[in-house]
Amino acid sequence: MMSKQKLVLSVVTAFFLICLFGIIIIEPAEIWNRIKHNSEKMNVVGYSDNVVYDGNHYKLLHPIGEKNGSLYISLPDLKAITLVETEENEDKLTISYKDRSVTYNNGLIQNCNLAKDEMCGYEIIDGIIYVPDQSVEKYLGFQMDFFYDKQTNTVSIKSPEEQTKKPYHQELGSTIFVHKENVPGEKYEPRSGIYLGGYVLQDEYINTSMNTFNKLTGKTHASYFRYVGYGKPFPKEWAEDVIAAGGFPQVAWEPNNGLDEVKDDEYLRQFAKDAGELKVPILLRYASEMNGTWTFYSGHSEQYIEKWKLVHEVMEEEAPNVMMLWNVFTMPESTIDEFYPGDEYVDYVGVNIYNVFYHNDNIEAKSDFEDPLRLLDYVYNTYSHKKPIVIGEFGATNYTVTDGKHHDDFAVEKITRMYKYLPELYPRVKFIYYFDVNNLVNAPEGRKINNYAITEKKSILNAYAANTKSGSYLSSIEENPDKSETYSYRDFFFYYDKELYVDYKFVQHYLDMDVKENSGKSMKVTHNGKSIEVNQENLKIDKAAFFEKREIKGLPLMEIMDAFKIKYTFENGDVHISL
Question: Looking at residue 387, what is its pLDDT?
Fold first, then answer.
């Protein structure tokens, strides 16, 4: 017979087990959360110190933390970047953004529903409060995007206001504008807009007709282009058709047998004379995309420059109506500058840009996130201070064999973003040509991957027409252009500790100041005989494609402006500088 002591012990034990079992049944999420919350130490290494907020880069005061698969951002950074407000009272902390708020008592959210994937508390490291991404998203309404985390370890934050916008309006970020007077123009350069151009020679849907393309898009295009292999005669008949359609020609002239054949001979002279006889502007895109590996003249920068100068000299002698366009592909960036022939040999700098859903027909290389404006930024920021810019080709995928799917909305978004914001944000772009081709039919074997045509689908055609109808897109040559010019600079700057830091090359090239680096911690800036030393802050940001990084060597812009008494204003988040 069981003793009274053992009986009492058994009853107590049973009662304890029943209570424990009841707790597990009633509140399993709470127990999971507490275990999860305390199961590992927060890691504060690995993530980039760059956060993108609504399109602008911010250098963090404190690194991003990670614990149990959740990301944590320091409260000082959250306040500096998003302008949230805080109220602290003993063990109570309230974080507010407009009409949203989250309150912590003793480090925990009291009304947290303790869902299995939610963290209900913040962390403290070295006296700094770190808030988990779930709280920032659920209670404050910000969206924290980790799409890049396995590739570049960068975090992007979108405000509630930004999320309500159409995708093509989101994350434009700030722009620095520089206004200058008495700027000499290049040949036929417009100052009040962008020459609208296209390529339709392989669009069988409209019988390759420029007039039909003009009619369907509701806009006479100022220019059309075609490819011509080096060794072939100047396409006089086609050029006359362009003129008859109300435009002027761009000729993409390609030495596809290599650069050795380019000589000052009868062929080159006759080609130039035929171009000169037209007496209309001709944009000559000679040997483009040389920075890649896919052309017959890639990898030979010294010879390339030598041959470029030869062609330029012959054109100056025989065809002064020719504008020489030095045109690269948007990537790779690292090889671009080694092919640049020099300012005196280049009239316009161009870049070809394509928005594809996947790179290189690889379903693992999804690229739908790429922004056509950011794909422009490197060439634009590097060269637009000295040369007007041309987008020699632009196209957006609406169907790809990579996944066998139509992507009409993707094409509409990219076309809208490019054409809507180009005149406003990139005033140094003077031409843009849409590549209206179904490559599934017209490309060489091995490249029949994407359909870029806009005439086959009404939604895409409407997007193109709607965004090119404004007077900013020119249908004819601008006569007597204005002498004043606006320059712009985007993406290569960041905010840190309430200061705007811009890459030193902007100070050097766009503000015409002398800049010398001092051991990576400061730089000496000289202007009009006066010198100052300013702090240098570096930040690595994501490139526009392929998950690579670039480093910005930042200088405090407002400090420099104030020191040299240069006028500037802030308007809607943008900076306007008058020189």
Answer: 98
